[in-house]
Task: structure prediction
Amino acid sequence: MDNLTPMIAQYHKIKNEYQDCLLLYRLGDFYELFYEDAIIGSKELNIVLTKKRISKDKDIPMCGIPYHSADSYITRLVSKGYKVAICEQLEDASKAKGIVKRDVIRVITAGTYFDNEKIKSGLMAVYKKSEKYAVSYLDLSTGEFYGSILSKEDLISFANKFLPKEILIPKDLDLSFLSQDYKNFFITKLPDEFFDKDTEQLLLDHFKTSSLTSFGFNHFEEDFIIKALASVFKYAKITQKSFLPYISPPKPYREDKYMKIDYSTIKHLELISSQENNPSLLSVINKAVTGMGKRKIKFILLHPLLNLQEIEERQEAIEELVQNHTLREGLRETLDKIYDIERLVAKISSNTLTPKDMVALRESLKKVKDIKQFKPKSNLLKTLIDNLNPHTELVEKLDKYLEDNPPFHLKEGGLIKKGVDERLDELKTLKENAEEVINNYQNQEKQRTGISSLKIGFNKVMGYYIEITKPNLKFVPPDYKRKQTLSNAERFTTDYLQQLEDKILSADEKIKALEYEIFTQIREEVVNQSYEIEETARTIAYIDALAGLAQVALEKRWIKPKVHTGYHLFIEEGYHPTVANYSKDFVPNSVYFDENSFFHVITGPNMSGKSTYIRQVALLTILAQTGSFIPATSAEISIVDAVYTRIGSGDNLAKGLSTFMVEMLEVANILNNATKNSLIVLDEVGRGTSTYDGIAIAWSVSEYIARNIKAKTLFSTHYHELTQLENEVKGIKNFYLAIKEEQNGEIKFLYKVMEGFIDRSYGIHVAKLAGIPSSVIQRATEILKQLEEKSKEPTYEKQLQLLFEEVKQPTLEYKQDKNDYEQLINFIEDIDIATTTPLQALMLLSELKNMVKNLKS
Result:
């Protein structure tokens, strides 16, 4: 484009390098947006769109935001998925020759906006090979950096646990399946260079290592996982430039160390967030007092342990904190005075800090010494406190150097105490005593000249001057230099006064510059100790999390469950931890699982408490394996390798899937992945389709779990026909939620789980409780009575009995000869798919699995 102004030409050159970003171009006290960026900015930020003349006859769109309040505008843009490039002036405009030098100092994206504590950031990178995914997660606000190799299902679970705001992928990778279950993130496709050997070497060089094995990764996984780790690191480094904060060495994230909790379980059990206004489990248990501790409790909740010793160590620490009032309150009182050290280190190392951040770090590190005064007896707590680094030398230096109440900005002065630097002390003394120095010189000149009316004044235009009235001009010494003539006086200066003026007027500027220089040196010392400070922060976070869990246990009178590696699971008088939190009349219930009773079919009308009860068992099991205490009178809980849930679902139009298909996909996931050591929670499986299909599927699923998987299972249902399974399959037991029928025909929910079953749904009673008009209730009662009296067809129970008698035996003959593969092939060939019902298909599939199992044995 011809005839552009130099400034717009410079803009074009810079914008060409950041075409995928909104370029905030610094002009004086404003960041300006031009062209299409301005149109977007005006619309998204609701600010006025104006024009700028760029040549003789051409205007372009323009809008701007104030420099000093840019953060709020940037936050709004980034939260909508825009990338924002910050183009700053690199020199003083008043001293620049020609166009002011400018360049982009940082690119802010959804995953890298770490300096705004109110905005959740987080970067995830994904690289696929075969059917596995190399995954990394980097949180620039805390420095945590993880890497793992995951399956597709575990990738979805990983995303829902860490909640990244931006996911980086190769340009040819399709991750559309992830957006079906995980929302509120943005995809950034990276060029191939982000996944090459040079990028891998960039990562290794940064952490001064030749192999990821030094960080705990296995040799066989290193070549794969480094793709994800290196790409996310390079992206952070390129976008943040000199603002890159401290990043911890990457750590392996091991799925096999933790109980498996997938996306469905996190959502259905409302572990982190609630579908409605009810509290989540996290909100109930998160009693930590520091930001670090709160994040640690969230991690603990989403990662229940599988190792019995680790669970018992946490329990022991929490128990000591519950019982030892002085220890618990002393720790929490001290912790409450500690700032978020992880975030402070990120701000200090990225140079986005304020002087107050450095003081906050100093005051926080001082408290480490106070924490180390406590002498707990439990192994975990003792180890954590013993390993705390008090950073004595650093704290002493920060205490010696930093003012206690510095200003908000780095270059305002008031940062460094006296006694640190002689040059600084001299300048401060001069500034503080300027008036006294001038008065001394004035008295000296009065005495030297004999002019008693001589006075020294000051104004911004002339600086310091000596004023002498006209009658005394004859006494003016020859070394005085005339500056100004007034009607009744003359103003003079001297070489010495000019020197004083230079010192006094420049002292403030010199003080600010020198203090900034000293402060920068201190900052570098802190940055050099970032790793050690981060380790201290994470230890404090763990202590805070344990103390927070102890506080919950104390306030709510929770008990320590006995966790073991056996099969049985007993919970006496357990409470749902969140429902009981807001329901004063909550009714406790017990659960007993063993080898003879591990599949519980639970019946009862709507609103009787079935769903609450089965969720309760899952939540208490998860809590127990985090090491937390639980709401019950006593408990013996076996370690489970996973908690699977299937609890309700709405249509997923984005997927194009019906409620029933979503339900079947979740059930399929459970049947394919659950083991004997899992806990399964099923709520109304099969209700999304017709009655016969629904009952058949529910029946078949129940049989399969009880006979083939033998996992501890809670199955709530309205299909009373399933209660027959107790007599058919070992391990299945019937339970129901009790109700009381009043003499007037009304019912009362008792919310108590009893052994046995009920064969009525009480749907009309529930409709009445919901406020359905009495005329509708009356008519429904009449229709129900007519149907019950007139129906001469066999009941569902009898029809199903006949049906299941028909399909209990293999549909086709097959000789159980483990070496006869021909028989297996013939069996498959003889299946008539066109006439096979869904129920028969499930039974045939089960039979085929048994055949293959026999052939392999």
